Backbone:
């Protein structure tokens, strides 16, 4: 099919061999590429009930029909596997530059099977795969690994000196369940522990290069469309806001509505929020907008600390989610200190959302005398030390490295732990944004904010945050549209510019498939049902879609709460909108 390379690369790292299969057009028509193609491969190739950290768990990388084209927001890749953090479906996406190099290598999906005895790094290019010894890289932090691998690739291939490189840090090597896969230093496929799966295969890094180009159904249509979107983007208020303030703009907004998770989910307003806002970042640091390839929004902040003990520290960030998890949950009232902990997590290769949640949960355990360790809110140095201990599995960090469910059980704090399916939520309290409650509960990968980004319609006034009746159907429609985005693999922040019509145009221009909204919803439903079937196969029941009880029992300062009955209604309506049974089972599930 046009828009694809029609090639799937299968790599076995145990035997260090590989072969190339062709894609099946019938599969592409039903599921498109990206998440759709990867999910079918995962269902087909993963043995049911497999241990996520065993060689039998497959690690699948995918790009979509837009990858390598001129479409804005197209420079992203996806990673799919069974999550060591949740035991369920795992997907994660990252921007930067790597997806473009993956496209040049010319595979729609790459399935990595087995596990190497000794550390390796892989070179994946248009003519095949090279396996390299990675003993000298093992133990290195992420930035240094990326630099070294990029340098090695340019030495080995003088005709193709440039490459895209993804790496894991010490956390991934140590199979810490919240490990990420990182690229371009600060961009992460950041949730559900894909880094630990890569580490379990003893793959330290993967470099991509090549010169393949795919054939599009209508090159001219694609470039005209891209030009038109660039024109529209110039006046789009959302695009302008991302460029001028990035995601930290949400700190002010979420505190204003009282849903900024603070002090391990006890409060919805942080009294020092102004010190960790977009404005504080702008004032206290040198900040430049920074973009992934093929992006005019440039939501990234390339920030350099101007003064104090971290003067000179430079990162792309911090993102809103990091500010909430480290600043709000752990009550750290300094944007520079948040950057310091952000940088630490990036070097170690750990997800900042889960890290902030685990650390603040430990602070609660310490304050309640459930553990001997002394650590408190705002105590930056103890927090940094605990983050390192998690990455290296030392002391209390060993338990935390196994995730929130393990720690809560060990400390007798299961009623206090905040997570869905073992994944901690992002920075939107569902007692205030009730649709986010449903988003966290229904998402295939646990308490995820990105599958529907339902905070957007709830914060912008499109949908009343307190509404319950009729909300699930609206959420399912958002989920359908953003699922299509994940099949193409587009950046979430283009969601306002890419409505149904624009998505249909992109698909027609790249693949030649002509689909209206109903046709697109049918494809999205195929994929949503497939990930649900995967999860059911791994033991999921409707019970796993419920929210932590604290959201039903503990009101925020404003008195806001989401009741159990409200969540029941939301889930029941959602199952109905999806055509699932009352137990949340899609049709034709065996
Ligand atoms: S909006 Fe941000 S995340 Fe999305 S492509 Fe642009 S820079 Fe990357």
Residues:
């Amino acid at each position: 099919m046009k828009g694809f390379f029609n090639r799937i690369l299968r790599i076995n790292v145990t035997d260090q061999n590989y072969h190339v299969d062709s894609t099946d057009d019938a599969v592409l028509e039903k599921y498109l590429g990206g998440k759709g193609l990867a999910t079918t491969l995962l269902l087909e190739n993963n043995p049911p009930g497999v241990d996520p950290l065993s060689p039998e768990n497959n690690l699948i990388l995918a790009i979509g029909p837009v990858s390598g084209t001129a479409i804005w927001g197209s420079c992203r890749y996806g990673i799919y596997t069974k999550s060591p953090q949740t035991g369920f479906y795992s997907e994660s996406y990252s921007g930067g530059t790597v997806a473009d190099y993956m496209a040049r290598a010319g595979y729609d999906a790459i399935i990595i099977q087995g596990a190497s005895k000794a550390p390796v790094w892989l070179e994946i290019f248009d003519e095949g795969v090279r396996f390299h010894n990675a003993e000298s890289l093992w133990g290195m932090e992420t930035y240094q690994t990326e630099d070294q691998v990029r340098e090695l690739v340019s030495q080995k291939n003088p005709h193709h000196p440039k490459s895209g490189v993804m790496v894991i840090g010490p956390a991934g090597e140590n199979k810490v369940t919240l490990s990420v896969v990182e690229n371009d230093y600060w961009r992460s496929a950041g949730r559900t522990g894909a880094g630990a799966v890569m580490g379990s295969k003893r793959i330290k890094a993967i470099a991509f290069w090549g010169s393949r180009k795919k054939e599009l159904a209508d090159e001219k249509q694609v470039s005209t469309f891209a030009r038109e979107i660039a024109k529209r983007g110039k006046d789009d208020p959302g695009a302008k806001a991302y460029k001028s303030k990035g995601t930290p703009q949400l700190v002010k907004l979420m505190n204003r509505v009282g849903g900024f998770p603070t002090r391990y989910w006890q409060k919805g307003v942080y009294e020092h929020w102004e010190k960790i806002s977009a404005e504080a970042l702008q004032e206290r640091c040198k900040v430049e907008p920074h973009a992934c390839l093929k992006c005019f929004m440039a939501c990234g902040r390339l920030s350099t600390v101007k003064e104090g003990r971290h003067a000179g520290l430079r990162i792309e960030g911090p993102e809103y989610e990091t500010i909430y998890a480290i600043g709000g949950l752990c009550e750290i009232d300094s944007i520079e200190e948040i950057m310091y902990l952000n940088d630490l997590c990036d070097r170690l290769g750990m997800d900042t959302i889960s890290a902030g949640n685990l650390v603040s949960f430990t602070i609660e355990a310490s304050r309640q005398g459930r553990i001997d360790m002394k650590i408190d809110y705002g105590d930056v140095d103890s927090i940094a030390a605990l983050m390192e201990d998690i990455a290296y599995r030392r002391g209390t960090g060993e338990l935390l490295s196994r995730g929130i469910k393990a720690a809560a059980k060990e400390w007798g704090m299961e009623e206090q732990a905040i997570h869905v399916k073992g994944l901690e939520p992002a920075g939107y309290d569902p007692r205030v944004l009730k649709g986010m409650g449903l988003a966290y509960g229904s998402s295939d990968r646990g308490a995820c904010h990105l599958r529907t980004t339902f905070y957007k319609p709830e914060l912008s006034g499109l949908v009343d945050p307190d509404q319950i009746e009729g909300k699930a159907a609206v959420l399912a429609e958002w989920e359908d549209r953003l699922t299509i985005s994940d099949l193409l693999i587009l950046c979430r922040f283009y969601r306002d510019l890419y409505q149904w019509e624009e998505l249909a145009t992109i698909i027609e221009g790249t693949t030649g498939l002509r689909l209206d909204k109903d046709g697109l919803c049918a494809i999205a439903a195929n994929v949503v049902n497939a990930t649900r079937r995967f999860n059911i196969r791994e033991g999921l029941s409707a019970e796993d879609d419920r929210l932590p009880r604290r959201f039903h029992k503990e009101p925020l300062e404003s008195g806001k709460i989401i009741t159990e009955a409200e969540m029941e209604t939301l889930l029941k309506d959602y199952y109905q909108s999806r055509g699932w049974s009352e137990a949340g089972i899609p049709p034709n599930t065996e």
